[in-house]
Amino acid sequence: MSWHSDDLSLPQPRPADAWENDDVLAADLVRALTEEETLRRVTATASTAFRAHRGMLALREELATDLLLLSLVHDSSAGDLAAGDLAAGVRDRTGRPSRTLVFEGDGVGVEVEVTDGLVEGQLIPARPGHVELRRPDGDVARAETDEVGYFRLEARTAGPVRLVCETADGTCVTEWLPW
Amino acid sequence: MLGTCMVERHDGIRDMSDRRGGRAVSSRQQLGGPYEGRTATQLVEGALTGDEGSWSEIVRRHANLVAARVRQFRLTPQQAEDVAQTVWLNLLEHLGDLREPEALPGWISTATRHECIRTANLSRRSVPVDPTTGRLDAQDDTEPDSDLLRDERHAALRAGLAELPSHQRDLLLLLSTDPPPSYQDVSARLGIPVGSIGPTRQRGLARLRRTDAIRTYLATPAGVVSREGGRDVLALG
After folding, report:
1. Is residue B133 part of a domain?
2. For residue A153, what are the β-bridge partners?
3. Quick one: B120 and B152 in the same domain?
4. What per-residue confidence (pLDDT) applies to A108?
5. Residue A65 has pLDDT above 60, yes or no
6. Do A26 and B130 touch (CB under 8 A)?
7. Nearest residue to A131 via CA among A152, A102, A100
8. Residues A145-171: pLDDT tens digits?
9. pLDDT tens, B124-135?
10. Which CATH number belongs to the domain containing residue A132 in this structure?
11. Beta bridge partners of A130
12. I need a labelling partner for B72 at 20 to 30 A (CA). Which of A157, B62, B138, B150 fits?
């Protein structure tokens, strides 16, 4: 993949012959347009991200407290990232695809199980609180937990989301992640 | 050291960008100006204090890096958007912890790769299919050319498309979307009979081959254009 100036010093073959074929030319056109669209979206999402971040900073001001950031420590669908293990996703008892995520930080955490249209979760340690699922552009869903920190959100997530968990001990947020 | 490279490359890239066409170039020109010469440290400090211009410049310098990672995993534009947004959101939260702003390209590259792996795991839809034939599109496996050569080819194709009459351009654009529309959809959206889609596509592709952009591209030895310019931080990722 690496390139050196040497690679470019000789005339390179042009795809003139290959492009005589309609399907080859069309496929290259698809790639050219996809690439441009990808770059446009990559750049456009950054503005949304910036506004979301400023919004989170404003929330922190409002609460007059630090928001404890919880990092992803387990993802049932990811396998071992370091080993590049592309483990297959698991399914729940009903056979629907399900994904378990665990976020932790500084002795507290939250575990969620995500199925199509439903998020079930548990605050760790077990304690009552209020949770909000947020997209960069606003709330998706919110719920009170029961007295031992279990919660259930009916929400279909798309794109990166984060959970904001408020308890008597403080407020923590999970790192942004598409669920 | 990486930061220094980036700044130098940016100074030399402007003339090149003007000829390349595409939206990335116009945003580069709009967002350039006072931010273009700033160091990574200055930009990070600016972004942390809420200056969106500094943030946009950080993004501009690294968008190609993110796009290149995404390309390696063959993600769709929608998946790429989710990956990129996740990377930007988490980068903003870690921006204050990055002691060396020169570490930015490495951080972004690693974070993007991890998000791409996650996305690829969650989706079985990571192998592109040629929308016009429905066949698996495996040509990327055999493409030995560099990023620069591919960029040249893609820029020529987009410039050639821009030269086409609108009815042919619109059809080729629509047929190139992901996921590909059915001929019935195409017919409804463009107001043309299903039976004319195939012939119009064929004539459009034939005309594309004869556009100035494509003929110039095919007549110019590869590498001549490439050698003149840099590639943001892509080569450093």
Report:
1. no
2. A119
3. no
4. 94
5. yes
6. yes
7. A152
8. 999 999 999 988 888 999 999 999 899
9. 533 444 444 444
10. 2.60.40
11. A144, A166
12. A157
Task: Give the range with max mean pLDDT: A102-111, B93-102, B178-187.
Answer: A102-111
Domain that holds residue B69: 2-126
Residue type, B174: L
> What does the pLDDT read at residue B60?
93
Of the ranges A88-92, B105-109, B117-121, B147-151, which one carries the lowest mean pLDDT score?
A88-92
Which of B27, B67, B155 is nearest residue A38 as measured by Cβ atoms? Answer: B67
Query: Residues near A58 by Cβ (< 8 Å), separated by ≥ 6?
Result: none
* Residue at a domain's end among A26, A47, A64: A64
pLDDT for position A67: 85
Q: What distance in Å separates the CA atoms of residue A56 and residue A66, rounded to the nearest whole number?
A: 11
Q: Per the CB < 8 Å rule, is B221 touching A11?
A: yes
Find the CB nearest B130 among A27, A37, A45.
A27
Of the partner residues B23, B93, B214, the one whose CB lies closest to the CB of residue A69: B93
Residues A133 and A165 in one domain: yes
Sort out which chain B residues have CB atoms less than 8 A from A40's CB and list them: 23-24
Q: Are strands A170-174 and A138-144 parallel, antiparallel or unpaired?
A: unpaired
Residues A153 and A93 in one domain: yes
Chain B residues in contact with A27 by the CB 8 A cut-off are 130, 132, 137, 139
What's the CATH code of the domain at B209?
1.10.10.10
A19 and A32 both lie in a single domain: yes
Query: CB B205 to CB A26 under 8 A?
Result: yes
Please check whether residue A51 lies inside any domain of the structure: yes
Report the pLDDT value the prediction gives residue A43, as an integer from 0 to 100: 93
Q: Which amino acid is at B175?
A: L
Does position A19 have pLDDT exceeding 50, yes or no?
yes
Domain that holds residue A23: 14-64
